[in-house]
């Protein structure tokens, strides 16, 4: 967990939070840089939308939608690794769903 989130949790007295990432902020593959995180998951649905493809992915019990602007060959049940910049994480208070900011602003 990035230190910015740890600090936020301490400020919020360890209340539950929701982390959100916009679908277009995901990048295919693993990026080995300290300002990026990655997740591994399984594709459960692919939507071809003309100029973009929406990839629905499961990571344990969580679900993600990744938007890519390229046509890729990916199918249901494929394993997939995606990366995202830590600054793209948006933080919400779980009970109120109030936006608390994003890591790029901490």
TrEMBL record:
Stretches assigned to the Transport-associated OB type domain: 19-92
UniProt GO molecular function: ATP binding; transmembrane transporter activity
Coiled coil: none
SUPFAM superfamilies given in the database record: MOP-like
Pfam families, alphabetized: TOBE_2
GO cellular component, one term: ATP-binding cassette (ABC) transporter complex
Gene3D superfamilies attached to this UniProt entry: 2.40.50.100, Nucleic acid-binding proteins (2.40.50.140)
Protein's name in the database: Transport-associated OB type 2 domain-containing protein
Organism: marine sediment metagenome
Source taxonomy: unclassified sequences, metagenomes, ecological metagenomes
């Amino acid at each position: 967990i990035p230190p910015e989130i740890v600090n936020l949790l301490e400020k919020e007295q360890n209340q539950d939070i929701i982390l959100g990432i916009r679908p277009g902020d995901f990048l295919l593959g693993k990026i080995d840089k300290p300002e990026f995180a990655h997740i591994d998951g399984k594709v459960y649905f692919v939507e071809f939308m003309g100029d973009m493809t929406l990839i629905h992915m499961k990571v344990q019990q969580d679900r993600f939608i990744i938007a890519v602007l390229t046509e890729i060959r990916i199918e249901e049940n494929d394993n997939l690794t995606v990366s995202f910049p830590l600054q793209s994480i948006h933080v919400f208070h779980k009970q109120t769903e109030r936006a608390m900011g994003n890591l790029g602003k901490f």
